[in-house]
Amino acid sequence: MTDDGLRWQRLSMGPPRDYAIFDAHVCQSIHPATGKQKAFTVIQSPNWVNVIALTPDDQVVMVRQYRHGIDALTLEIPGGIIDPGEDALTAIKRELYEETGYRARRWLKLGEVESNPAFMNNHCGLFLALDATLEGAGDLDETEFIEVELHSLDQIPERMADGSIKHSLVVSAFFFFLARTGGWHRGVLDQP
Description:
Blueprint: H1 3-6, E1 9-13, E2 17-18, E3 23-30, E4 37-44, E5 48-54, E6 59-67, E7 72-76, E8 79-81, H2 88-100, E9 102-103, E10 106-114, E11 123-130, E12 133-134, E13 146-152, H3 156-161, H4 168-181
Parallel strand pairs: 5-11
Antiparallel strand pairs: 1-3, 2-3, 3-4, 5-6, 5-8, 6-7, 6-13, 9-12, 10-11
């Protein structure tokens, strides 16, 4: 079967309901095989970015914060929404400083993932920042309350295995890091 054979025909997209950081729509689509019509919710959101920021001694700059969706604290890497008019790299440099007070000397794009294509339209750009150093107090948004933590790079697999790190976009970033370096070290990244 071709990709077109799996595609639902979208009949309409209802007016958005604005939720500040995203719009929710109800769209009507037709099943490609049965022809039956069904309503689906689609969330349209700006694209996101996140970053694995490594200090010169291979500590990962991480943030601990409360997440309303799961009513719990999470351990994550810094990240956020790409503001209108920003490119992904500008956005993640801003987010790293705002959330942690760190800035980095060298930046690499690790990849990009779809945030949740079942019902969301956006992507998340995954970055690596090398030689990150603390340069200020940061500048949190009014809705942010964050604790900055440093975790040794070689402890990240254990943090994921014990459930300390389980945010899917964070795990994705570490997967891309591992694929790029071949291990839990800078490896080939230190070579010109």
